[in-house]
Amino acid sequence: MWEDLRGHHRTLEQFRQAFRRGRSAHAYLFIGPEGIGKRTFALNLAQCLFCERTSNEELDACGECHACVQMRAGSHPDLLSVARPDSKRELPIELIVGAADRRGREGLCHELAMRPMSAERRIAIIDDAQTMNTASANALLKTLEEPPPGSMLILLTPSADAMLPTIRSRCQPVTFAPLPDDDLSALIISLGMTSDRDEARQLTTLAGGSLVTAQQLLKPELRSLRERLFTALDQAEIDPFATTSQVLATLEELGGDSATQRRHAGWIVRFCVEFFRTQLRESSVTDADDPLANAAEMDRLIAQMERCVDAELHLQQSMPLPLCLEGMFDELSRIRRGNVAV
Ligand SMILES: [Zn+2]
Asked: How far is the CA of 23 from the centre of ligand 1 (A)?
């Protein structure tokens, strides 16, 4: 059943060794970027522990027994799972410990403590665990400190730093690396996201090892934003103001809530970095007949790429988007005009 797993075989091997030695943990913190397979890994792990025909030490599943069929259908009664709803910024505390008037009598922690219905244990997966507020995290703490016998909790987060230290210290951390390019490319094709190998490779280069990011990039609006940016950057002169308004207009078309827009904004600078990286690669293999001019051009390209990386940092530090973009395009234009020493 692990045959479809891509990129995390070493982690699987570590789990197998731990289970063989009887050293499984009650709580795990799966750490890694969105869309690289943490949730799939957690579900596979649960299926192995629920499978009626394999022992826990093997950490494998038959794929045919009642438990395996239920897991594949997403209906196993002993698998509990919560995640932040799309419309919410935080994971609601009600999902963890029940509504205010039923606190402690429903919710994930309560259900985890109940006797398993068909397996030998109950397993809970908390997706987007970094979006728990302090109250939710404190409510969960009690379960982490005194886990119900046999239970297992798996928390998923993009970063360990985003978790409260009290939660972090009570979970065994497992770090998941972004998917290697070959694995991600193969996955993009096998999931039917595209049948064009060149397109799959292009998506892979941009997606930074994340399947979710690759999926987002399939949006035609995002693609057209990329093309517009590339056209603008390909001109000898950049008009900072016009380019900024053009890009902002495309962002408007993409819509979404403020978090989504911020993510899209991140794409703008990443596309710019990609543009300069490609130019750099091309100029390092051509124009060898004029090495001096070529070296100067490469310096200019590197300087422009660095300005884009700075802009990405500014964005992360919550600088208003128009200000950030206009500043970036202005710098790029000055470098091209030779007004900035590089
Ligand atoms: Zn089975």
From this structure: 22
